[in-house]
Every structure is written in structure tokens, then in C-alpha cells.
Amino acid sequence: MTKSFKLAEELAKQLQSLGHIKHAWFTTFNLNMDFFERHVLSTLLQMDKPRSRIDFELMQQKLNGGIKEGRKGNANIIANMDVKVFADQRMYDASDLKRTAIEVYGVNPALLDGGRKKVLNNSTLFHPKVIFLQDEDGQAILGAGSANLTLSGWSTNQEVFTFQRVECQYQVEAIRAFFKPLFEVNQVETKISFPRNLRSEITPSDWCFVHTFIKNSSDGKHKTLLSHLLGHSDEAARDLVVWSPYFPSDLAGFIQRLKSVALPHQLKLHLVPDLVENQRMRTQWSEDLLPLFSDESMRFYRSPIAKDERSELCHAKVWMTNDKLAIGSWNFTTPGSNLDLDSKGAGQVNIEAGIILANQQPLQTVLTQLLSITEDNFMQSKELSQHVLEVAELMPVETRVVFDWQTLTYHIELLKIDDDLAWQSVELHLPDLDEPLYVVKTASETVYATTHKLSQEPQALLVNHAYELVLTNGLRYRGFIVEHNSMMRRVEEFESLDDIFNSLIEGRSLESNPNASLRSAILGNDHDWLDEQEAGSLSEPQSSPTLSYFRMFQAMDSFEQRIQTLKSDRMIEQYAFVVPGCLVEMGLKIRHELTENANVFNWYMKQEFNLLVDQVKKNANDSDLKARLSDLRFKSNDSVIRAKELQNSIGSGQYRSLIKGKCNYVSI
């Protein structure tokens, strides 16, 4: 692999300590899809950075895994990887080009954790940056920190991140409690199991995964960052060191509230801000800060870690006491600290997460450069407004679109968030549908669910993985479609029917066949790849042998013989619908021949194809698979060769009857 970003290198190092990865789940506030697929996903798959469309499809094939024939004809999917990304719905752009079928979920924070809208509401941000990795044996690693899944988060910003191995049941339950609301709201059914030999109790040296969803079993209150850092101490004074780029507008008021949480201990704050232009903090001056300066209960410091000249922002969030070190997404703000998590008021709470470790470093080693702060180091309201985070509005309709590649069916669920919105003003645009979908009048007041089965293989969905929600007032919202059974995406094909027959006759494997290439629908406008292919061609393409009766019969027989060796429906399904030269592709190319030429040879080829489909159907056991195979047969209205043409081309009806009887053809 080529040299990567520092965090990507650390991720690669963690992957080396595990076996084959079974689950890889990511949460982020901001998401850049192109960056994630190029740099994070390629690191996860231990592949070179993709350069062309075919590279991305190779990544997807590795994600899909493969099907291996087992004993007694059983087939299992092997080496597949479950990759999921959860991002704040407002902070990723589904207009970004998404080149793989990984599952990406836009999160509406107000719907999480039972929809506790008194605490989690439309102003709540989904802010955690978490990575969960687990191999096939159940061994797991959890990562948390400040880095979003963006180019700046993994390269130019100054960030902090830590990875820890899961070693006890306490950590397991915290991980499950974090992902459970995300899975429930998105109707994801994923179960994770861990080794039975994990310790049942946590020790003082163990790390803790702390997040907005975790609660005490005794009183039902949340186990917050502040309760871990400021509680359970015999010290008279509690020193708290915090790195944070963002501060509350009312800094003095927030600190007074922190002091009330720290009681009966005296709280001494040591703050390490990110200074804009090396001068100003992202908060306003207030006379209420003067007592905090005078009694030295609040002091400011420069970071002991010099910022690289290429770094635009110190985005790290670190909280330290004499005995605890917290690395996560918590800013030094009211929402970021989850200060109001158990409040009955209307305070804002963000969804945050991080890891708390035993602190092995004396505080004085990081508090080496005291800052002399004056009123000039604070921003005026106009400048502060330029640094305020701009967050778009949540979708007025929570939209879940799932496409099943096995059944070619869209599963759609719309949940109305804005009560004033009329269903009649909503239309949903989906790839491979010529017309938008509208909500029917019989829909319930808040929820609408429907399915839509495609009549043929999707093509647009191979490259366009997004839906678009359009309102009559002109507003448009985009989100990513969740794709299930992506192993059933047919992404490769042969250039011609003759190429399929050649591979079958010569006994070549259809899978990973060098004569197959990406479907034209996928290549699309990938000019770089097309130019590269053209430049790499040093010789004139060789012409293939002309189609003939013998070659056609021989190829059909070869396909049938291969099917006879398959003992499982999963393998039959691949040869019927997925691999290059499968029945679907063969049927499409034969249909094209029928359209171009109404001759006797094509009539025979159509009959042989139907016979082949029937033979494959006999080998299948599953009734649904049999029905899908039946749909591949040519019908009477599929042929351009009509009865009069048959009479003129083949001859007498008696002769045609003889042919059908000898060949077991069925009249169509």
C-alpha cells in the first residue's frame, strides 16, 4: 500500500492485530464520501488507493466476499465485511459521488434513544467520532476521538484519537448501548457476539466507553463525562485540563455550572484553546470572567504540542484530571459536555462519545506555557458569528430507502417529522424509475410505507446510490440508499454473446474471467479508466469465431453441465444472475440478436436458452428462486419471429413439430 495519513496508518496497525474483519462501524459528524471510500475504506480492505471505477468495484467485491461450496452441497458467503457509516443527516452531502454499496445512514438525532425530544431535539447534533472493529472470532477494538471522516479530519487538522482492545463485559455493554439506538431507528438487524472468556467486572486500570446513551442501572441517570471526571474523589481541589477549539458564548456562566457539578471539591480549570490567527478564542468577553481570573480558578495555556504549519485547526478535544484522561468528541460547551443530559429543562444536548483512560502523565508536564489573556483575546459578536457552525435544517420527512438486489425491490418508509407538511407535497425520486413516487391518500397520518419491484435489472442504481426528496415548495433533500444483498449486483459482462460461448466451450471459469469487463452502465463517464485501457492496448483486437449451430449447442450444454455440479441454491443464483456470462446476461444478448435478425438460427438459440433455464430451474430447490428463474424465459411476445416467418423459414408444421419433440422444445 502507498503511504497514507497518520490516522489511516494507525487504523492499518490496529487491523493487523485482528483477524479477518467481520464488522467495521463508523460514526461521524461531518462526512465526505469520496474521502472515506478512497482513504479509509481502502485502508480497511488493505488495498491500494482506488484510481478508477474498476478499482472501486474491486473494493466492493472484496466487501461482498465470495461464495464457497461446502460439504454436502452447502454454500456459504465467506470473507464478507459489514461496513456501516452513521453521520449527522445535515452534515453530509448525498450529492457526493458514492462508488460502493456500503451502508451509509443519515442520523436525525431527535429520533434516537427512544425519541426523548425533551433532551434530544432538532438542535441536537450527532457528534461522536467512533470506530468499532471486530473480527470473525469476536475479538474487537474500539476507537474514539475528535477526527471526523473528512480530509481535514484525517490530514490537515490537529486531532486526537485512541484505539483500545475490548477486554471486559462492561465495555461490551457500553458498546451495545451506543449502537442500539442507531440500529433501532434505522431498522438494522445486526447482532454482535464476543468471546465468552471476557472478564465480567471492570478494574480501575480498564478504559471506559462513555457516551450520551449510557445509563446507571441503579438510578437510571446517565453516566456522563463529568460524572466520571469530577465525581468519586477525596481531593479537596479538582484540577481539570481541557483542550477544546470551541467554547460557550457565556463562558463564565458555563464554568459556574461546572463548579456546581464538582462540589464539594474546588474546581480549578486549565484551558488549552485553539487560537484563531494565534490570538483570539471562539467566545465573547464578559465582566463576569474577572473573578475567575483573579482567584486563578481559570487559566489558559498554549498547547505543549506545536501545531504543524500546514494545520489549519487544533480540533482535538481532551479532558484531563490527575487520574483520568478522556479522549473523544466533547467540546468545552454545554451541549458538548452533556451537562444538561438529565436536566428537565430545555437545554441543548449533543450526542457525544469518547474513551476514558487512567491518566499516566502529571498535569504539570502539559501546563508549561501559560497564556496571558486579556479582553483582546476574545472575539467581538460580529467575528464570532463568522465562526458559528452553520447547520442545515433536518429533513421534514425521515426517509428510509432500502433496495434489495436479490429481489430487485425498493422498500420505502417515510416518517413525517413536520406536522404541518402535507403528504401531497412530497415526491420521491429513485434511480431506475422514470416517474417519482407519490404518497397515496390512504397513508396514515405520520407514516407511509410501500414497496416497488423493478421489472428489470437496475442500471442507474449501479452508479447512483442516492434518492431525492422533493417538496412542492422547491426544497430538495438527498440521502443515500441502503443496499442489501449487494453480492447480487451484476457488475461485469462479456463484450459479445460469442465471447460467452467461447469461455463456456473452452472450459474457462466465468468468475474473474479476463475477457469480462465492467458493464458500460458502470463505466459511464469514467474517462480516466477508458483512456487508460485504450493506451494500454498494444495490439489490434482479434475477431472471435462466428456464431454457429454447433458452437451454440456446445456452449449451452457446457453451461448446463456446470449447473449440474452445483449443489446449492446460492451457487445456482450466482450463475443465473450475477457472474459474467450468467443467464441474465446471456438472455439479454440473445434478445438483442432476436431484435436484429429474425432468422432460423436465432429461433433455435431462443429455444435452447429456454430449455437451459428450465434445466437450471430443476436443479434449484427454493420456490422463490424457481419463480425468478421462470421470469428469465422468453415469452411468445418476446420474439420478432412470428408464425408466418416460421412457416417461410423452417418449412412445414410437421417438420417444426418433429424438431420440438426431438429437442424437448416447448411451443412459445
TrEMBL record:
Gene3D superfamilies per the UniProt record, alphabetical: Endonuclease Chain A (3.30.870.10)
Domain of life: Bacteria
Protein name as catalogued: PLD phosphodiesterase domain-containing protein
Organism: Photobacterium aquae
Lineage: Bacteria, Pseudomonadati, Pseudomonadota, Gammaproteobacteria, Vibrionales
